[in-house]
Amino acid sequence: MTDMETVEPQKGFNKNFFWKVVYVVLLVGTCLSFYWATQQTDYIWRWNRLPRYFYYIETVDVKAEIEGEVTSISKKGDDSVVIVSDGAESEYYTIPGSDLRVDIGDTIYMGDSLGEYEEGRCGLLLEGLLVTIEVSLVAIVFGILLGLFTGLARLSSNPCIKWTAITYIELIRGTPLLVQIMIWYFVIGTIINNLSLKAGLPQIPELWFGIASLAIFAGAYVAEIVRAGIQSIHKGQMEAARSLGMTKTTAMIKIILPQAFKRILPPLAGQFISLIKDSSLLGVIAIREMTKATREAVTTSLMPYELWFLCGVMYLVLTFALSMFVQYLERRTTS
């Protein structure tokens, strides 16, 4: 064989395929082991009861609120309209469908049933899931904005702006999120709502104090991520932009930030995944997010295993979807 001859790769054992098979075997073995362990526990599994915690049909009983006589029953589309009069005033009751329990001329007492109908309603876990998504999305948006401006302030040459940003970052990162949530709700929230009450303004719901605490907490970490991303760009980029006549602000917006954005996407994804999981702490201020909803469902159903497993899977779906979205953004920015 001469040096000019090429050696063809041998078609034989494929290591890559082998380790893929090993991974699948380990995954299936872990699932089977977990299933075997659940069968060894003295517990009756009730997986069939879980759908009602997402959506269920409730029978609504329409009751009279006054004493009197049924003076009229009319149809309004598919609904029935019942009028009860006590001689001085009349009450109108709309009953979807035609399941009535009264006739014209019947004497009605307060609390008597006039009819009933079925209505579909969101279950406890679905309500908690929607609240978790709402809180997380709003907190992520405000966290990005706050972190971006704070990160830029952290790099400012103005001592007042720079030291203010550093103080905010160190204060927030140095204290537990649970303590911050308590302060926002019981201290800042109480002060704001008391001032609003004196001024005749509406009260702010506890949901917004929870969002504020999460957004400010995330903003401190996003600020450091933004700062590190900007500083990772070579100084020559800014100098080249300035030499072309750009102002520092224009160069930062058009040259530095787009390059830094590609580098900070992975750590931003990790921070926002943590934020979704941290939203479970809002249950301490009576916000019915996913964890609090699961805790309430466990209390009433006595199904801790099924509900907590389901809660974990729901968090996993949310965080995995966010991770896939960030990976999509990474591919778009690098293509």
UniProtKB/TrEMBL annotation:
It comes from the Bacteria. Residues 129-326 form the ABC transmembrane type-1 domain. It is a multi-pass membrane protein. The keyword Transmembrane applies. The chain crosses the membrane at residues 21-38, 135-156, 177-195, 207-226, 307-329. CDD domains: TM_PBP2. Its main location: membrane. It is found in: Cell inner membrane; Cell membrane. GO terms for biological process: amino acid transport. Keywords: Amino-acid transport, Cell membrane, Membrane, Transmembrane, Transmembrane helix, Transport. GO terms for molecular function: transmembrane transporter activity. GO terms for cellular component: ATP-binding cassette (ABC) transporter complex. Belongs to the binding-protein-dependent transport system permease family. HisMQ subfamily. Part of the binding-protein-dependent transport system for glutamine; probably responsible for the translocation of the substrate across the membrane. NCBIfam families: HEQRo_perm_3TM (TIGR01726). This is Putative glutamine transport system permease protein GlnP. It comes from Pseudodesulfovibrio piezophilus (strain DSM 21447 / JCM 15486 / C1TLV30) (Desulfovibrio piezophilus). The lineage of its organism: Bacteria, Pseudomonadati, Thermodesulfobacteriota, Desulfovibrionia, Desulfovibrionales.
